[in-house]
Amino acid sequence: MKINKLVNAIRMGWLKPRPPKKTEEEEKLWDIWENEDNNELSKKLPPVIAAVKMKLPTHAESYNPSEEYLFDEEEKKKWESLEPEDREVNFIPKKYDALRKVEAYEGLIRERFERCLDLYLAPRIRKKKLDIDPESLIPNLPRPSELRPFPTTANITYEGKAN
Questions:
Q1: Residues whose CB is less than 8 angstroms from the CB of residue 155 and which lie 6 or more positions away in sequence, other chains included
Q2: What pLDDT, in 10s, does the model give residues 124-154?
Q3: Model confidence over 75-105: pLDDT tens digits?
Q4: Euclidean distance between CA atoms 90 and 60, whole angstroms
Q5: Can you spell out the DSSP letters for the chain?
Q6: Which end of the chain is more exposed for a tag (fewer CB within 10 A), N or C?
Q7: Mean pLDDT throughout 58-82?
Q8: In a domain, 89, yes or no
């Protein structure tokens, strides 16, 4: 009965519960990213572009693809004759009756390396391109007649030993 009265008093705001005591360990910790969005440096920097997401796997990459995605002999020969850069897919789709029978993918390391290169070489900030007319950068040169008087004949010639 007394507990109900205390709970009611807390709900009504008549009674304020004591704040929990902070331990020494809690006082030592702080969040270093607490004001990350509000700090002055982040305001000066341009907005960051998110990294490029990987393409989702297709039906042909399934361990049990439909018959339409499997290669026949003619398509397989055509795929093998193409250069690796020109191929639409970088593997030959195979069908397995269980996921545990799928063999290791030999192109995994290469694909991971190319993904890392894509992430490394991807632009992370938007650069503002200046829209300047190239003709406006060339200065207007005066006509030669406006530059007169300037020497038109050689008055002195120095002759000496040439190297």
A1: none
A2: 767 778 888 888 888 888 888 888 777 778 8
A3: 999 999 999 889 988 888 999 999 899 988 8
A4: 11
A5: -HHHHHHHHHHHTSSPPPPPPPPHHHHH---TTTTTTTSHHHHHSPPBPPPPPPPPP-GGGSSS--GGGS--HHHHHHHHHS-TTT-SSSS-----SSGGGPPP-TTHHHHHHHHHHHHHHS--BPPPPP---HHHHS--PPPGGGG-S---S----------
A6: C
A7: 92
A8: yes
Q: For residue 117, is it within any domain?
A: yes
What are the CA-CA distances from residue 40 to residues 35, 36, 43, 127 (Å)? 10, 9, 5, 20
- The pair of structure tokens assigned to 20 is 């929990």
Task: Tell me if the bond preceding 149 is cis, omega within 30° of 0.
Answer: yes
Residues 6+ apart with CB under 8 A from 36: 42
State how many domains the chain has: 1
Please state the pTM of the whole predicted model. Answer: 0.43
The verdict on residue 68 lying in a domain is: yes
Q: Is residue 95 part of a domain?
A: yes
What are 154's two structure tokens? 């050689």
Q: Which domain holds residue 111?
A: 59-121
